[in-house]
Write a structure and sequence with these properties.
globular, mainly alpha, 4 helices
C-alpha cells in the first residue's frame, strides 16, 4: 500500500478511535495508551478492533490483540497486515 494511502487509513482510524473513546481527535496522541490514558475498557477495545476489521476487511490475529495498546500499535499492526 502506498505511503500516501496509508496516511489516509491512519486518519480514518484516528477518527474511529475518537468516536468510540469520545476523546477529541486533536487530543489523541499516537503514543497515548488506550487503557491508561484514554480510559478504554475491554468492550471499547473490542469495538475498535471489530470496526477496523469490518472497515478494512482484515482479520487481526487474536494473539496480536494484547499488543494493541496505542494508536501507534494499531498503525504498525495494520501496515503489516495490509501490505
Amino acid at each position: 500500500m502506498p505511503k500516501k494511502d496509508f496516511e489516509e487509513v491512519k486518519k480514518e482510524i484516528k477518527k474511529l478511535v475518537s468516536e468510540i473513546t469520545e476523546v477529541p481527535q486533536a487530543q489523541l496522541k499516537e503514543d497515548a495508551r488506550f487503557s491508561e490514558d484514554l480510559g478504554v475498557d475491554s468492550m471499547m477495545a473490542l469495538e475498535i478492533v471489530a470496526s477496523i476489521e469490518k472497515k478494512y476487511r482484515v482479520v487481526i490475529p487474536e494473539e496480536k490483540l494484547p499488543t494493541i495498546r496505542s494508536l501507534q500499535n494499531v498503525y504498525e499492526l495494520l501496515e503489516g497486515i495490509m501490505k
